[in-house]
Amino acid sequence: MSYNSNTIQAAWGKVCWVFLHHGRIDSPSLAAFVIDESMHDSPRHFAGCRLDGHEVRVASCLASLPNDVILGVLAHEAGHVEDFRSPDLYGLSGGKLHVYKASQRHRRSSHETEVVADKIAALGMGERVGYVKLDGIGWIQCLGSGVARPKTLK
Ligand SMILES: [Zn+2]
User: Fold this and answer.
1) In 59-143, where do the E strands start and end?
2) For residue 105, what pLDDT band results from cuts at 50, 70 and 90?
């Protein structure tokens, strides 16, 4: 089955616009955005951000999922863009997003890196990113609803 990549491009454009105009965060709109079917490498994975924060790749089959899931996944990746472009700047303190001074920067667990992406996504979008469990997919990001990221999720 093939999906309309325009749906994904438009959703990414919306996420970038909201990050810029609501969150005052411009980094997602500066990142390259590439449709790449190989990003759908497991039931749960549809997208990824390069570790330097300069490129997001998304499989077009993400378009088959509900709109709030599409936006949740893309907002999470936009959160990674902002985070990865400022290594170790963001962290968590008491479960809340904390912006460290250069002298305080610290290493994080992979779980913390994922939660930081969700927290930056909420900052950018003005809505929280939660996790919902979809049939055949499992836990996946959802804009505006869902539970906190399960600690068992890799
Ligand atoms: Zn992630």
Assistant:
1) 90-93, 96-99, 129-134, 138-143
2) low
77 C-alpha to ligand 1 centroid (Å): 6
Q: Which two tokens stand for residue 86?
A: 């400022």
Output 39 or 93, whichever has higher pLDDT: 39
- Residue 142 alpha carbon to ligand 1 centre in Å: 13
- Among 61, 27, 33, residue whose Cα is nearest residue 45: 61
DSSP code of 150?
P
Residues contacting 17, CB < 8 A, separation 6+: 29
Round to whole Å and give the CA distance between 36 and 8: 11
The answer to whether residues 44 and 137 touch, using CB atoms and an 8 Å cutoff, is: yes
- pTM (2 decimals)? 0.93
- Residue 92 CB neighbours (<10 A): 16
Phi/psi for 130 (5° steps) reads -110, -170
Question: Could you tell me the distance, in angstroms and rounded to a whole number, from the CA of residue 94 to the centre of ligand 1?
Answer: 20
